[in-house]
Queue: 2 jobs
Job 1
Amino acid sequence: MLKSQKLAFQAAISNRPAEQIPLNILSQVFEMREGQIAVIPTSRGASVVQLLQAQEASLSEQQATPIIERYLRQPQAIRGCPGRGQETA
């Protein structure tokens, strides 16, 4: 259907841990159930995402530390933390 309408699109299958999913869509993906499809707006249009499988995967403190540090360095994370990245009056 997209081809017949001459609309640009890309199809891809990816397997990503939660820490590699962009923060702006992570909350939407977190709410999805296996098999569910969601349309997520992007800067270039939209992504149609189907969650094929989800599984819990615990990390050790040693594995989690660099991921947490990288998360806390992101501007979106700092804005969401009280007292971080903001001056108090």
Job 2
Amino acid sequence: MGSIGEWGQRTISLTAETPVSRVGWLHSCETFSMARSPRITIPTLPHHILQRGNNRQAVFFDDDDYRLYLECLRQAKEKCSCRIYAYVLMTNHVHVLVEPTNDK
């Protein structure tokens, strides 16, 4: 789960295993895992990440959902020391072009 921030808001850790379908329904940031093995990560090689809602259902319902996802993405970027080159937030899925660094 997340931790309480300085204004009493929950903070998050978003990982590649975090399903977007859960983020869209949350009003706080939390960590979730999917039931599969982690993918191979190659430092300095950009990765195209695609996250979809279950059965391609909507994961973003209003502007606050988009803002929350972007805040979660920013925190994950800082925690994982990666570069985000581009992202697209659609109503039922997300594309992110991210480059892991050698730091972690």
